Amino acid sequence: MKILERLNPHVAKVNPYQPGRPIEEVARELGLDPGTIIKLASNESALGVSPKAQAALVAAVPQMHLYPDAGAFELRHKLAKKQGVKPEELIFGAGSNEILVFLAQALLRPGTSVVASAYAFVIYKILATMQGAEFIEVPAKGLAHDLDAMAAAIRPDTAVVFLCNPNNPTGTLLERAAVDRFMEKVPEDCLVVFDEAYAEICLGDMPDSFRFVRQGRACLVLRTFSKAYGLAGLRVGWGYGPAALIQALEKPRQPFNVTLAAQIAATAALDDDDFLVRSRANYREARDILEAGFTELGLPFERSYANFMLFKAGDAAKVNDGLLREGVIVRPVAPYRLPEWLRVSFGTPAECRRFVAALKKVLGR
Ligand SMILES: Cc1ncc(COP(=O)(O)O)c(C=O)c1O
């Protein structure tokens, strides 16, 4: 098509993100009953939606003819109070993913570069490519970020460095001492993004990234209601950073990016600490079941501190196909250049046991 000659050459280079496959799609393709399929492919909440968010959402239906508050006043003030931060240090997005887009639009262009680890969340590379920035991928230490190497990779033109913690898709967690050492080496004109989508359900000790913002560092912490609170379908996430940086990131934000339903549900979810406690307990049990299953099957796996884990399946495409036929959707990680591995999200204990049984069958054990 003639119009495509005008396509932005940076956009033309983008390899689109491959999401986890929806249950209905797999059911249609394989002739399965959707009710029998389990999806362990997108690190969604195993316990469903936060009950407090769900109740608020249902009650809010009659207000849906109204536009949302463009400044998310209630959510902003409640979250600021809960986190002990100032309202003007927060930004909200349609998922934390949208805030990643804002920061790419605000800071990245040809002549700038981005530093991230190999096997880190693939969206970083997509955004850098889209903006015409150079993507510097730093080899990992095993499957984990090598922070010393990442600090050494920062160049004068590096505008953003991404620390994904715990990292998706590897589940690895950064240690506080390593983060401290890293932060000492980052120049002040380079933004450090702590992408902490799994922080509230983390199964280890999260290093405190907020203190760098309090110190006035060029630093942005990203969180989401998608995972811990089970609001992935509503799309709402937030960022915490110095007020001046937040003001700059607000420029590309469109006024009604976070829906009224999402704002109401997220505001209510903030009261649901009990849901977080139950979720973490569930994920601990899920991890035990999966680790025991992989050990029994002799499959290498990476210890995870989030609600998903990588295991080495060998011919991962074939194993993935077999699992789909058993009604279990997991996530191939070939786009991360891990062609022998698969990522499985932590479901309920019953779902994890079903996954292990299906895996045994697929592997002929
Ligand atoms: C590390 C990481 N960051 C950000 C996101 C984006 O999440 P959302 O846009 O749902 O907040 C995800 C989602 O999988 C993720 O794994």
Describe the protein's architecture and organization.
This protein has 2 domains: 2-48 and 273-362, Aspartate Aminotransferase, domain 1; 51-269, Aspartate Aminotransferase, domain 2 (3-Layer(aba) Sandwich). By secondary structure, the protein is an alpha/beta fold. The strands form 3 sheets. The protein has a 7-stranded mixed beta sheet with strand order 2-8-7-6-5-3-4. A 3-stranded antiparallel beta sheet has the order 9-12-11, covered by helices on one side. Helix 3 (51-60) runs antiparallel to helix 11, helix 5 packs parallel to helix 6 and helix 12 runs parallel beside helix 14. The protein is globular and about 55 Å long. The chain has helices spanning 9-12, 23-30, 51-60, 73-83, 96-107, 123-130, 147-153, 176-185, 210-214, 243-250, 260-269, 273-297, 316-325, 349-362; strands spanning 38-39, 90-93, 113-117, 134-138, 158-164, 191-195, 219-224, 237-240, 308-312, 328-329, 331-332, 341-345. The structure holds pyridoxal-5'-phosphate.
